[in-house]
Amino acid sequence: MSVVKGNAIVGQSGGPTTVINQSLVGVIEAIAGVPEIGHLFGARHGVKGILGEQFVDLKGISKDTLSAVANTPSAALGSVRKKPTREECLQMFEVMKRHDVRYFFYIGGNDSAETANIVNTMAQEADYELRCFHVPKTIDNDLKVTDHCPGFGSAAKFVASAVRGDDLDNRSLPGIKIDVVMGRHAGFLTAAAALARVRDDDGPHLIYLPERPVTREQIRDDVAAVYQRLGRCLAVVSEGVVDAASPNGQPLGESIKHEIAHLIELADKGGAGVPQEAFNVVRLIGGVECDAHGNIQLSGSGVLGDWLAGYIKKELGGKLRVRADTFGYLQRSFMGFVSEIDAHEGRMVGRKAVQFALGSDSDGSVVMIRQPGCDYSIEYSRTCLANVAKETKSLSDACIAPSGHDVTQAFLDYARPLVGPLAPAGWLV
Amino acid sequence: MSVVKGNAIVGQSGGPTTVINQSLVGVIEAIAGVPEIGHLFGARHGVKGILGEQFVDLKGISKDTLSAVANTPSAALGSVRKKPTREECLQMFEVMKRHDVRYFFYIGGNDSAETANIVNTMAQEADYELRCFHVPKTIDNDLKVTDHCPGFGSAAKFVASAVRGDDLDNRSLPGIKIDVVMGRHAGFLTAAAALARVRDDDGPHLIYLPERPVTREQIRDDVAAVYQRLGRCLAVVSEGVVDAASPNGQPLGESIKHEIAHLIELADKGGAGVPQEAFNVVRLIGGVECDAHGNIQLSGSGVLGDWLAGYIKKELGGKLRVRADTFGYLQRSFMGFVSEIDAHEGRMVGRKAVQFALGSDSDGSVVMIRQPGCDYSIEYSRTCLANVAKETKSLSDACIAPSGHDVTQAFLDYARPLVGPLAPAGWLV
Q1: Which chain B residue has its CA at the smallest distance from A164's CA?
Q2: Contact predicate A246/A214, CB 8 Å
Q3: How far apart are the C-alpha atoms of B7 and B25, rounded to whole Å?
Q4: What is the ipTM of this complex?
Q5: Between chains, do B69 and A427 touch, taking CB under 8 Å as contact?
Q6: pLDDT by residue (tens digit) across B272-324?
Q7: CB neighbours (10 Å) of residue B221?
Q8: 10 Å Cβ neighbour count for B250?
Q9: For residue A19, which residues of chain B lie inside 8 Å, CB to CB?
Q10: Rounded to two decimals, what is the model's pTM?
Q11: Chains A & B: contacts with CB separation below 8 Å
């Protein structure tokens, strides 16, 4: 089997991470030394750039520039939230044929794997030799097959450091604090807050994950019990935590937004005595959006946290200090605070995608396989695109404590090497 | 003049910072070598610990422990939001006399300086020799006399790094982004977001400060103009930005909360057709609190950001991506990300307070005086407590651009040395 001659495209997709450019640079570096690949086209904003033929020439870029780009958060080529239709995949395939593209590297989550998979199938059907590779990235850590995803370790380091600092703050000025963490369906990032703990009574004292539905009353009672015991409480809540009281298993944040929507609906229908304009403030705060994939966007909105803080304050008595922070985009974009191992692995999955594409005649997604033994080590392998496309994974039962609002030692052992050491803390009392 | 023999108290007050423990350790270190000071009592939770005589013995602590504590965010002795009454100051003074306390170091903002000032006056009136010193800290950077305050540089570094990362994120997935930064009255921390810029079209593109009242319509128009020009916009808004349409000059966040309160009031009065329970969700989200000093608490609540995002989205057309993040407590507590110069100066003001207290016969607050010349350098001095107590300062006109929604080069020159270098960024396009 010989290396196919032709050109290559690389693109980035989905929510950026702090190490997605490591993967891009990994692809660029690995291709630089391959004479059979003439051009490496960087697609601006992922599939959008392929459809619009907006390309950046990525061969011959200096080592210094590549090194700076690798260490820069966000997608250097631009990203996109677009999931192409079949028709658009066909158009992309036509563009690739026209530019003699024989290699397609798409850095992103499971939707990106699906895009690569559709294009791959089209190429096979047309008997056009095209190597489609998905390069994994996501702070949610929810891709199948791989042990973990580049992007997660750095986001987890941010969350754990934020929660460690916030817990110290909460010790200084005791009260009830709620931190809302990203993750619509998978609780990995929220669970990583547990890495913040050093001493027995350190927070987070409660961790609410999308994998364990909970009622608002249960959260209130859990918080009250911790407050009773410690005189303070730090609870970490996934933005995707599921409302156990909802018949269709919707997130609590959505239940709250539906309550807002319900109020506005009632107001629209009648509400004599309350002028319609008075409701505008609520309309604006409660805005609910859907993304192109049909997912309801809750991410980063402060409504879940603010509501929870207001609810707990009202239920537990008005004099308590109750506050919420929603970590938002900082989790995926904060500058200058990556996990070293995550940055390294981000680079490696880019390089490996090229190696696998050159060395075999099939499509694939790069997977990381944790090696048995005491020391953390990873072997890189490939799996079929179909195994990673569409579906995602959640935290396994072995990672979640029986209480449902904490993680297990197994999760800590899993996550700690991905995050690396946190800054140490010292105490006087 | 000889050093007065006796004991010392040190306490921490107000919102913690990431370097307030540097100042505490500075005090502890400087006192360790003073034989005339027998005990150094660490007051738990500031004035609360003095009133309740909850003390920690701070002499003889190992260097390693002190070093770890110095590098730990938050108040290691615990903090307090309490502003003591005159009566309580008298009680504190009685406690000090009973414990033969001759030195009182209080680390905090201007309210802490006022507390120290009241106690100092009482001691003078009673002809009791007591050296009261205020050690400055505040992320708001709003203390009078001093060039700047320990705590600001690290918070500013956090904000600038967060905004730099967020701006890169916004380049990747263009849209309108609003970041809400702490600072009720002074815009220093919000202004520090400007340090994030490297290239001409980098964000933040708009900076709204408490010092320049603005209407919601003006924000909308400014954002629309930037979006028109760049296809994206990153605006940074102080939580204390003043609503120019409000007759009493209240913050915009408060105007929004008053709109919520107004809706609920109307609902309470009538609202036939809309059941009262339907309004509960709004009651919880819009919760408005006052702190012990009578300030309305807006800090960290997501309502201002969420409302602004909803407002801009509605006004500029429903298809735009508009999102808000509120940075919240992370600005003052994030672990492992301090400004080096800020950490150093935090330590120094603690040490200097002790030196000044031992070397003179008056009260004081430590001030930092920036030396003229090209290289950044600071001389430490003292001023009377009365000069720092009660009143605060704001950004000077020279720091604010004529547009009212940006800073000047003078501000950048002022702030850059306090923050230190940010992580460099690299670009492909």
Answers
A1: B335
A2: no
A3: 17
A4: 0.96
A5: yes
A6: 677 777 888 877 777 645 444 544 454 447 889 999 998 999 899 867 889 99
A7: 13
A8: 17
A9: none
A10: 0.96
A11: 309
